[in-house]
Amino acid sequence: MPIPLSYSYRNLLARRLTTLLTAGGMGLVVFVFAAALMLTEGLRQTLVATGSFDNAIVLRAGSETEVQSVLDRTQAGIISSQPEVAQGPDGPLVASEAIVLINLPKRSTGSPTNVMIRGVQPASFLLRREVKLAQGRWFRPGSNELVAGNLVARRFAGAGLGETLRFAMRTWRLVGIMDAGNTGFSSEIWGDVEQLLQAFRRSGFSDVIMRLKNPAAFPELQVRLEADPRLPVQVRREVEFYEAQSKRLADFIKVLGMVLTSIFGLGAVLGAMVTMYAQVGARIGEIGTLRALGFPRRDILLAFLVEAALLGLAGWAIGLIPASLLNFYTLSTLNWSSFAEITFRFRLTPGIILQSLAFGVGMGLLGGLLPSLKAARLPLLEALRAQ
Amino acid sequence: MLKLTWRNTLRHPLRSGLTIAGMALAVLAFCLLRTLVAAWYSGVAASSPVRLVTRNAISLVYSLPLAYQSKIAAVSGIINLAYGNWFGGIYIDEKNFFPTFALSLAKYLEIYPEFIIPPDQKIELLKDRRGCAAGRQLAGRYGWRLGDSIVMKGNIYPGEYRFILRAIYRGRDPTTDENRFFFHWDYLNETMKKNFPARADQVGWFLSQVATPELAAPVAGKIDALFKNSLAETLTETEAAFNLGFVAMTESLLLAIKVVSWLVIGVILILLANTMAMSARERTGEYAILRTMGYRPWHLAELILGESLVLAAMGGLMGVALTFPMVHFFKTRLGKYFRVFPLTNTTLALGLIIALAVGVLAAILPAWRASRVGVAQALRRLG
Lengths: 387, 383
Fold this sequence. Notes:
The structure holds two protein chains of two kinds.
Chain A: H1 5-14, H2 16-50, E1 55-60, H3 73-80, E2 87-88, E3 91-92, E4 94-105, E5 112-120, H4 122-127, E6 132-136, E7 145-149, H5 150-155, E8 164-167, E9 170-179, E10 188-192, H6 193-199, E11 207-211, H7 218-227, E12 233-237, H8 238-282, H9 284-292, H10 297-325, E13 330-335, E14 340-345, H11 350-377, H12 380-385
Parallel strand pairs in A: 5-10, 7-9
Antiparallel strand pairs in A: 1-11, 1-12, 2-3, 4-5, 4-11, 6-9, 7-10, 8-9, 13-14
Chain B: H1 2-11, H2 13-40, H3 42-45, E1 51-56, E2 64-65, H4 68-73, E3 78-86, E4 89-90, E5 100-103, H5 105-111, E6 115-116, H6 119-127, E7 131-135, H7 136-142, E8 149-154, E9 159-171, E10 181-184, H8 185-195, E11 202-203, E12 205-210, H9 216-226, E13 234-238, H10 239-249, H11 251-282, H12 284-292, H13 297-333, H14 345-372, H15 375-382
Helix pairs in contact in B: 1-13, 2-11, 2-13, 2-14, 11-14, 12-15, 13-14
Keywords (chain A): Cell membrane, Membrane, Transmembrane, Transmembrane helix
Organism (chain A): Desulfobacca acetoxidans
Membrane topology (chain A): Multi-pass membrane protein
């Protein structure tokens, strides 16, 4: 019969302060670990949700972002008349859009940051299923009216309902707020593409978005458009395009987070080791008694390892509870790829819960391994004498 | 007393060693994070109060007509004027990111005395229209040597650009970015004229140098007034404000890093407090004996505090020592995000001070407990 589980956890309870301190230290590390993963995941999810799988985006070849891309009207016309484009109630589901970036001051700090303004066509609303009007009304085509994403409206001065923005020698009125859920469109302002192009004295669009009748026909469309000598373009699935946009920032957060947690983690493992060595040291007599009762070395090793793992488990719980509260916290920063502000939430996924569980228990086990081996290797007689 | 403290510290060499190692790691992490934050602000720290940046008021993505040059140059107080564009080319692969600029080189180098180029290389660079210059670190990263041909693909300015490395600059100050790549603005403009005539003669920003820092604000006002209500209104700010604008855009990430750097202190505090609490509890009996021998409670507190401080100081010193190789590692791994990684003495000193503060804090609870313990009660436990 192995040593009962209760031996391990009662021991932890017997030295409450030490247990709590050690688990608390590990909890902090688990917190940082989970937060870094949640941040990366939130960023990725927001950008992935921004794209739809059955939408294709056509950009000028060589441009990584919509801002860099330019397509003239002839090119946009050719792209829009492809046979793969799906039909909507009022015509084909394809929109030529223009992206401009403007500097707006934040309401909270007054410091300016880049906000994306998207010039859209009527089909744009149908192409983005997530985008809904939350307040006010849509802008009238041909007018200096804009509709702001809910996150922009809240965060930037002049972008709220009924307010005005001044740029490109015109005054623009905000007539509505749109809610685009957990997508990048919540961080954008939309207006009539023709008005925006005129105001910025531009002749070309930025890109063309289209809904495919059949998503499986994408490779065919891609090959044909990219081979067309009239079109210096690249065609991507919208989902893949947006996922690539998150890569640089997400990689940075991830590398930084992992380097930090490995340093922190090592510190916490040392902490667990200190605690477990002390536990073993204080219980040499007990271990001798257990051995004398007939428990083999393997069981002693196991009992102490279980104790260390429980310590890690406690650390995981202590760390994950505050981390899961972060789930309600949004963060906004400049996306280095698109050069525009993006707002996203920390995202807790079951995968992250499991990863941090493995991380916490792993830290405990790693810290407990050497002390447990020491406990198991104690010579029986010496251990008994220590009592 | 000192001897007793020292002996106590060495009594559990393994425990002390582990604690010190843990402390060292945490101090290391703290120093790294501080350095990271400093790296974020490095552009601001490296800017000069006599340099003004004029850009399109709508946002940096929009350009200004080259024709503004003569108007801006006529503003009194400006002694030197240059201009440039962000080129953003790709070298072989997107992963090889480094900042690339098309600049009016002759003037730019005058305004930026921080970039030190040997005179013969400078002549070569200015003579060769396809010539380009790279920072020492950047050239080292890709093994470039003078005379090498460098091919880049433009993504903002489509096409293939061939450069010849004519100069390698080094930074005058530790905060000077040695990872930049720049070439003649004229080369870019000619290519644009050929391929996209509508986009030629456009400048990303003007950089002007004013005679004295006091002139910066009035000159900036004058420049912006010149182009008020034009198609391309300008926004002129000091170089520091311009760079700070970039920092502000990512300030929430910065905040997260700062929070984490304080969390790390929590981790070490817990670690050390745990060690001290354990040691003190084990020695309750001894403390009682010391008390019966006539030691006062504050003697015991001093013993514990001394031990805690010894551990903390050793951990802090080790952590600081470890910071140097780690900073080097970060520099090479995250080089594409941060061109400079300025490790300052303040950071190191702060790391040590915090280690010692943690040492004091960690000792408080055990010391308080030890000094309160009743002699008879503790002796009974010993027996």
